[in-house]
Amino acid sequence: MTSGTELDLEEQAKAVIKVFGSDQNSKIVYRPEKENHTPSFLFNMEKAKNDFGFVPQYTNYYDMMQDYKKELESGKWDVLIKSGTKEQTNTQ
User: Fold this and answer.
1) Three-state SS across the chain?
2) Of 8, 25, 44, 53, which has the most beta carbons under 10 Å away?
3) Residues 19, 66: contact at Cβ < 8 Å?
4) What is the pLDDT of residue 51?
5) Are 40 and 90 in contact (CB under 8 A)?
6) What pLDDT is recorded for position 8?
7) What is the pLDDT of residue 1?
8) Burial 54-73 (b: 16+ CB within 10 A, else e)
9) What pLDDT does 27 receive?
10) CA-based torsion, 46, 47, 51, 54: positive or negative
11) Closest Cα to residue 42, out of 28, 52, 53, 56?
12) pLDDT for position 89
């Protein structure tokens, strides 16, 4: 599902940097010579609302990233994150 609001790649990058990268001085590096093969889409959410009663909790990507960070920091996912790190190390 989607939020029903328009969002482009630059806005996503800015939100991720603001939430996760502030202490690391992250920045966007623009590469106009590279094509962006990630088109932006805006989907109508009326069918999801009518058929399933779905209303997006987040319509702002920044707010969603803040909640995602809060979830990551809660400790609930530590076991999964650690097991994923082990798998990545074993395959490299």
Assistant:
1) CCCCCCCCHHHHHHHHHHHHCHHHCCCCCCCCCCCCCCCCCCCCCHHHHHHHCCCCCCCCHHHHHHHHHHHHHCCCCHHHHHHHHHHHHHHC
2) 8
3) yes
4) 92
5) no
6) 82
7) 59
8) eeeeeeebeebbbeeeeeee
9) 86
10) negative
11) 56
12) 55
- The amino acid at residue 72 is L
Residue 34 main-chain phi, psi, to 5 deg: -100, 135
Q: What are phi and psi of 77, to 5 degrees?
A: -105, 5
The residue assigned the tokens 């990545």 is 88
**How big is the CA angle at 2 (ends 69 and 37), to the nearest 5 degrees?**
90
Q: What is the mean pLDDT of each run of 10 residues along the chain (92 residues)?
A: 77 91 82 81 82 86 91 88 65 56
d(CA 30, CA 21): 17
Q: In which residue are the tokens 């779905």 written?
A: 54
Cα torsion at 90, 72, 60, 15 (round to 10°)? -60
> Do you know the residue count of the chain?
92
